[in-house]
Amino acid sequence: DNSESLSMSDHADVSLNNTSFTISFWFRPQDEGVDYPIVCKRSDNDLTASSGNEYTVWMYQSGPARYFRLDVGSTLSIVSGPLNLIGSTVYGFGAVVYDKPEGKYHFYYYPGFGLLSAALGVQPYSSAVEPSDGSNALRIGSNNGTQLFADGAADEVGIWKRALSADEVGQLWSDGSGQSYPFEGSLGSAM
Q: Checking CA distances to 156, which of 50, 93, 150, 176 falls within 20 to 30 Å?
């Protein structure tokens, strides 16, 4: 039973209301059949979109397939296309991008090193629903710091207050070798 997570007090840099944003991460799932948060800002124990939720990116399972799920506030829950996960020993790279002027959310998933050279995921999902600005802590690996701990690992979590392009997301993945923070050149700064 995993009970480790990272928590950071609320800060304007991780409140994503009224702006385009990108949340990226490397992850390695362990248990099948378990839903767990990867990155979130929420105050409650709910497993769904709820009033105590600013945003939550989940590893979600339905039947034999795994997905990313993004919950925003109490009204929006978006599920990606099925992920082609390759076991519990290899990290994959994921990103959720919200482009405010477009009013669209985009999911990206790249398997581990050298396996595919193109992103897998869904077509953009249109919605005007955006995260609220609350005072919740940012958490990696748990929904509220006391339960629903991620059974797996997360690394190199990044949050940008802008929508990264598909090319920029691909640069983060970098053929499975990834780029570390801080970035040089065109990507700019990350939280």
A: 50
When computed from its CA atoms, the radius of gyration of the chain, rounded to whole angstroms, is: 15
The pTM score is 0.83
What number of H helices and E strands is found in the chain?
1, 11
Per-residue pLDDT tens over the stretch 63-114: 777 778 888 888 888 887 777 665 556 778 888 999 999 888 888 887 764 4
CA dist., res. 135 & res. 53, Å (int): 10
Cβ atoms 35, 48 nearer than 8 A: no
Asked if 92 and 77 count as a contact pair (C-beta separation under 8 A), the reply is no
Question: What are the pLDDT digits (tens) for 45-63?
Answer: 666 667 778 898 888 777 7
